[in-house]
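check this:
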Amino acid sequence: MAVFPSFLIISALMVASAQQQRYSNISLVSSLTPSTNSSWLSASGLYAFGFYNVTNGYAVGIFLAGIPEKTVVWTANRDDPVSPSNVVLVLTNDGRLILRQEDRDDKNMANPRLPLASASMLDSGNFVLYDSAQNITWQSFDNPTDTLLPGQHLSAGEEIVSSASKSNPAKGIFSLRMQADGNLVQYPAEPNVTSSDAYYSTGFLQVIPGNWSLGCERNFSMESCKDKDQNVSYRMRSLDNTVWEDTDYDIIEDMKTKEDCENACLGDCNCDAVFFKDGICRKQKLPLRYGRRLQGDSNVALIKVGTRSSFTQGVPNNSVNEVVKKRRLDNFLIISISLVALAALILAISWVYVHQNHVGTYMISNNRNVEMIDDVGLRAFTYAELVQATNEFKEELGRGASGTVYKGILSNNETIVAVKRLEKELAGMREFQTEMKVIGKTYHRNLVRLLGYCFEGSEWLLVYEYMSNGSLADILFNPENRPCWEERIRISLDIARGILYLHEECETRIIHCDIKPQNILMDEHRCAKISDFGLAKLLMLDQTYTNTGIRGTRGYVAPEWHMNLPVTVKADVYSFGIVLLEIICCRRSVDRRLSENEAILQEWVYNCYAAGELNKLVGYEDVDTRTLDRMIKIGIWCIQDEPSMRPSMKNVLLMLDGTLDIPVPPCPNSFRSSI
C-alpha cells in the first residue's frame, strides 16, 4: 500500500558535497547519438546526461552512471520523451540544444534565455547551459521532473510528477507539490486539483494489492452482469460522505432517492459505481483512481458488488472453492477501505508533524554520500563454494604481488567472477575484517567492485566482478590491440576519476599505493576500473615487490618511499603520472631494450617536451597536438619529486578536461629515484 511514489526514496540516498562539485565542459557542435557516444559524464563519472533505453526507443535525460543500473533522475521533454535510434542530440554552433532527425523538424531540449556558448554536467546532478559570459542561462535543477537531488530547491507552487513506469518516462499519476503553507504534499497528477485533493486528506488509496496505479477494480467480470446464473446476485455498497474522481458517462437528474440511483446502476451493465447528491445520480466506470471522505459533504458513493448465493447440496468441491473465493473477494473491498482509511489518517498526522516547520522551499538534506548506503554488504563465501566456482582454481587470469586471480562461475546465478587467492602473509583477522568493511562500502564506476570474501584458516580469498578485457597493460603494450588517441584520453579520465573517488569521495580515504597498468582492468566496454584498492594495509611490509619496506611496484613508486618520508595521497598522484605517460606513448615506463636516452620513459618525455619534439613520443599517429601538450604537462607535474608540487587528483581531472590552465612544469630533480 504505497502512499508516496519512489521518486523521493532515491533522492534521499543521493548526496554529493557542494565543496566537491566538479564539472565537465561541453563545447558547441558537440553531439551524442544513442548507439555510439551516448552521454556526457560529470567529472567524477557519477552522473551522465544523454540517451538511455526506454520502451520503443530512447529518451534523453540525466541518470546515475556510477552504479550498474541506470537510475534516471531527470527527463527532457516528458510530454514527448521517446525518440528513435537515428536521432542526434546536438549543441549547435548557433547556441541551441536540439534533437535532430532526418526529414523532421528540430526539437528543442531546453529553452535558455540567451544563445548557448557551452554546457556542463555537474557532479551535483545538475545539467547547466552557459552563455558567452559563462552565466547560467538554463539548468535542469530549475526544471525538475520526478526526482529531487541534494542542493535542488522546490519553491512554493512548484511540483515534481512521478513517471508512468520504469520503462516509460512520461508523466505518471502522482505529484509532489510545494504548497504556499510550506508543506510538501502528494496530489493526483491532474489539472485543477485543490488542497482538498491532497493525499493526506483522503480515506482511500490502493484497494487491490499490486495494482495501486490502476485504482479500484471490480471483483466480478463484466460478462457475469449479463448472464442468467441464478447463483449470481448484485448489490450496491454505500460509502457516505465520499467524493471520488468524477468520470461520469451519464447524469440522471431529478432522482428522488438513493435507492432509485442504485437501481439505475444495477440495471446498467456498463455502470460500476454511481454518485448521488442533491437529487443528481452520476454513473461511473472503472477504474476509479482516487477519492476522499469529507464529513461535511452529502455525496454518497455507491459501488456495484457481485456475489454468489449460499452453498447448495451436490455442489462439486471445485465449485465450493470458487464460491469461497468469490465471497472473500466480496468482503475484500470493505476491509481494504477500512484499513486504508486508518492508515491514511495515521500518515496524515505524521506528515503534518514532520513538515510543520518547513516553509516556502524544500531541499533534501545533505547527510550521506550516494555510495555509502548503509545496507551495502559483502557476501561471505565458504572455501568449498569458491573451490567449486573456480573448478579447483583451474583457469588463472593473472598474478600479482598479493596473490593469483582465477576465473570462477557462481553456481547460484551463473555470474562470472574473478577470485583472488591471497598467497602472502597478511595482517590479523581484525584488520582484515576492518578493511573488508571499508572496501565493501566503496562503489564507483571506475573501481572494480568487491563482491565478497572467504576467510577459513590459512585460506584468504577475495571475490571481484569479472573484467572481460583483461588489464590496461594487455591493451596498452600490445601493438595489435593498441587504443586509439581518443580512447587513451577516455582511459586517462576513467583512472583519474577512480583515484579521486578513493582520495576524496568515499567514507574512508584510501591510498592505493600500487597504481599501475596491471591493476587497472578493462570491462566489456573497455571502461577502465581500478583494482586492488584497500589491500595495502593488509600486506605485511616485507611482502611486496621490493625488500625495502616499500609498498608498490618498481618503476611506479614515488620518491618519498625511498626517503622515509610520510606517504600521502600524493604518492598515488605520482604513480598516476607515470601511468599517464605510458598511456600517451603506449610503452612501459622502463624498457632496457631501448637506447639509454629512451629507456626511462619520464626522462625521455621531459627531454622531448623541453626540446619541443613531442611528435617523437607518438610517432606518426594522428593526434591532437594541443591535447598531447596538455597531457604531457599534466604527467610531468604529477611526477615531481616534491609531493607538495604535485597537483591533487581533483585538479588533475580539471586539467585533463581543459578547465584549468596548466603552467609550464619544471624538470623533476631525479628521474631515477623510483627505479
In short: Residues 58 and 83 are 5 Å apart (CA to CA). The radius of gyration is 32 Å. The domain at 212-355 is CATH 3.50.4.10 (Hepatocyte Growth Factor).
